[in-house]
Design brief:
With about 400 residues, the protein is an alpha+beta fold.
């Protein structure tokens, strides 16, 4: 009878479709003693609402003491669910062509995070049949609406997270995905991910925000520096309204959402092509987005500047901004060094792919260059907001607390 009980629990796990545990209440008789023996023999393990929120899936490896497991069975506690152990399942040597489904068949936990070469994401970003939604430290992959229903191997990843090498950290980015999501992919899709599977899994860790949010269910109050720039731009435009001048930025974007310009994000693959695409996006959002009418408008306490120089040529927006800021703001700071030069460097780098033929290169140092560029850009935009805050009435404008303190702004 003990073997029959073990078979019932095992068959239920393997054939449930979602690798669910067998509820204790499904037995029509009391098999407490036999189940406890199976627990002692490392063939059955117990989850219950006393241990986890949802005992019907084996989400995480918990290593619950056997005596505690048996106590739940004896007391017939709420939501007691039985599973074949990983040790027992491996002894069965169940075959499957799908590598990640095989891991669940062997009893591994559904929320186990597996790490892959980040290059796997480029295959989706470069393929218009897919949409990759990215937000700070996590994202998802879906099939584009116009291709939905076609034979795309059911490639849907509900959640993937940014990971790092434990020693190299930001020098080596990887992608982490839940085993449960990978196991639902088709054979071809699983094999594609398997090619990018990192052998030394123990050398990598997932981003703290991803772990807190999706594993622990905690609220993550840190903000990406990319979103911080967009928030600063919104505040600056509100200040312009109070100052009686046109918005400094012709367009603002929605921070903290997936609705952000393409390539305005961290690079997943450190290539020159991706770096220049990022620079182009940054130039469009900041430089090309500057409204020269802000500088030519007369308002209370504000002196405008001329649109043309002495020779009758139109001035560039950044030159106008430099002249306008120096004319209207009294400060010991070097405005060009603080604001103008970092923004001009964006335009300077952008000139390379715009006017030269270049060879694409793979270079992990580009991660560092991108981080340095976004930091300097943020400092410049933040400085504008700080200068504008001194205008009468602008201190009354609501500013997100994290922008004021700067404590929760992160570079992922």
């Amino acid at each position: 009878m003990k073997e029959e009980i073990l078979k019932i629990i095992t068959d239920y796990y393997l054939n449930s479709g979602d690798f669910n545990g067998f509820p204790l209440y499904n037995f029509d008789k009391n098999y407490t003693d036999l189940i406890c023996q199976l627990i002692d023999e490392d063939k059955v393990e117990v989850l219950s609402s006393a241990f986890v929120i949802n005992p019907h899936i084996k989400a995480l490896k918990l290593n619950i003491d056997k005596e505690d497991q048996k106590r739940e069975v004896i007391n017939n506690g709420d939501s007691v669910v039985l599973y074949p152990t990983e040790k027992y399942l491996k002894e069965l040597n169940i075959n499957s062509e799908k590598p990640f489904t095989k891991m669940l068949l062997d009893g591994q936990e559904q929320l186990k995070i597996l790490f892959f070469d980040i290059e796997i994401l480029e295959t989706y970003f470069q393929d218009p049949r897919y949409k990759v939604f990215w937000h700070d430290y996590r994202g998802s992959i879906v099939v584009s609406d116009e291709f939905y229903g076609e034979d795309l191997e059911s490639e849907y990843i509900k959640d993937f997270g940014l990971g790092y090498h434990k020693e190299k950290l930001y020098e080596e980015r990887v992608v982490g995905v839940f085993l449960g999501d990978l196991a639902e992919l088709s054979l071809n899709a699983q094999l594609k991910w398997k090619v990018n599977y990192l052998e030394n899994q123990q050398d990598y860790l997932i981003n703290e925000g991803f772990y807190k949010n999706l594993i622990l269910g905690e609220w993550v109050d840190e903000v990406s520096i990319y979103d911080a720039i967009l928030d600063e731009m919104i505040v600056i435009n509100k200040m312009c309204e109070n100052m009686g001048i046109p918005h400094l930025f012709n367009k603002t974007y929605k921070p903290h959402t997936f609705e952000k310009p393409e390539d305005y994000r961290i690079m997943f693959l450190p290539t020159l092509k991706n770096y220049y695409s990022f620079i182009l996006a940054l130039e469009k959002i900041i430089i090309h987005n500057i409204n020269y009418k802000t500088f030519t408008t007369t308002a209370k306490y504000i002196k405008p500047v001329e649109r043309k120089d002495d020779k009758g040529n139109l001035k560039h927006s950044l030159n106008m901004m430099s002249e306008w800021l120096k004319q209207n703001i009294r400060t010991n700071e070097d405005i060009d060094e603080l604001i103008i030069n970092p923004l001009k460097s964006i335009r300077k780098i952008r000139q390379v792919p715009a006017h030269e033929i270049y060879s694409n290169q793979y270079d992990k140092l580009l991660y560092k260059k991108q981080n340095e560029m976004i930091i300097e850009t943020y400092k410049a935009i933040r400085s504008i907001r700080l200068f504008f805050a001194n205008y009468p009435g602008n201190k009354e404008i609501e500013i997100p607390e994290y922008l004021i303190t700067g404590e929760k702004i992160r570079i992922y």
